[in-house]
Design brief:
- It is a single chain.
- The protein has helices at about 10-15, 20-55, 70-80, 95, 105-115, 145-160, 175-185; strands spanning about 85-90, 120-125, 130-140, 165-170, 175, 200-205, 210, 215-220, 230-235, 245.
- The mean pLDDT is about 80.
- By secondary structure, the chain is of the alpha+beta class.
- The protein has seven helices and ten strands.
Length: about 250
């Protein structure tokens, strides 16, 4: 028999229409069973739909997590910093900074301002992972007005939080001693540790040279025959599908 509290109005209407209590209870019990059956079907259907939606993952691994210029400079930083600190790449500003405000509206507004912005490199203490300073690698895109406005805002965020931010122009080659001089003051190392006198020039294209035709990685190869036998050259890694060849210019430090 259906619960007396359930469909009470319906039961009273049936009795008012002349049905006996037993008959009205039978009608209510029938309606109740049909209602429960439809509710179970609806819940099961919603559950199946939710499971189907959860099982769909339309995601793919990006090939451009670091651009060629960013990867090249990353290798330079590895050479300069060594084990003095940890290099993190493309860190979201909201993972570094937080908004202090009792006004929820202002909190959301200022959080949204940093939520979709990142810094190219974040250098952290190797023991505590506390951020020491950030580095922005400035390529030609930073000359645009929209990028300049963005850079001004990011500079203000770092400055307000007393976290240094360096802007280093993207180049084809870097003198390691110059990079080390720029970052030495921010590295959390022993005070008696002196910058090295290494004056090595790193040609960034040696780390990641991209094919101008297909975008694949160029690989340093050596000619095995012909008049150029023994000479080195850049060959596309997608050979033989792409047969791009570039001249290899030996650096003075090699």
């Amino acid at each position: 028999m259906a619960n007396n509290k359930k469909f009470g109005l319906l039961r009273r209407i049936l009795i008012a229409l002349g049905l006996s209590k037993a008959s009205s209870d039978e009608v209510v019990a029938f309606v109740d069973s049909r209602f429960n059956s439809r509710e179970e079907t609806y819940t099961h259907s919603r559950s199946e739909t939710a499971d189907t939606e959860v099982d769909i993952f339309p995601y793919n691994l990006r090939d451009d997590f670091l651009s060629a210029a960013e990867f090249s400079f990353f290798k330079v930083l590895q050479h300069v910093i060594g084990n003095k600190a940890v290099i993190c790449t493309k860190v979201n500003l909201s993972d570094i900074f937080w908004v202090k405000s009792d006004d929820y509206s202002k909190y959301r507004t200022y959080t949204n301002k940093i939520d979709r912005k990142h810094v190219d490199f974040l250098i952290c203490n190797a023991t505590t992972m506390r951020p020491l300073f950030g580095i922005e690698l400035d390529d030609k895109s930073h000359q645009r007005k929209d990028r300049q406005a963005r850079d001004t805002f990011v500079d203000g965020v770092f400055d307000t939080a007393n976290l240094p931010l360096l802007h280093i122009p993207a180049q084809r080659s870097y003198r390691t001693s110059d990079i080390e001089l720029q970052i030495a003051q921010f590295l959390d190392v022993q005070s008696n540790s002196q910058p090295s006198t290494d004056n090595h020039i790193i040609e960034t294209s040696a780390f990641m040279k991209m094919c101008p035709k297909c975008g694949g990685e160029m690989v340093l190869r050596e000619a095995r025959r012909g008049k150029n036998k023994g000479n080195q050259f850049w060959g596309c890694s997608n050979y033989p599908q792409c047969k791009t060849i570039l001249k290899y210019k030996k650096q003075p430090t090699e």
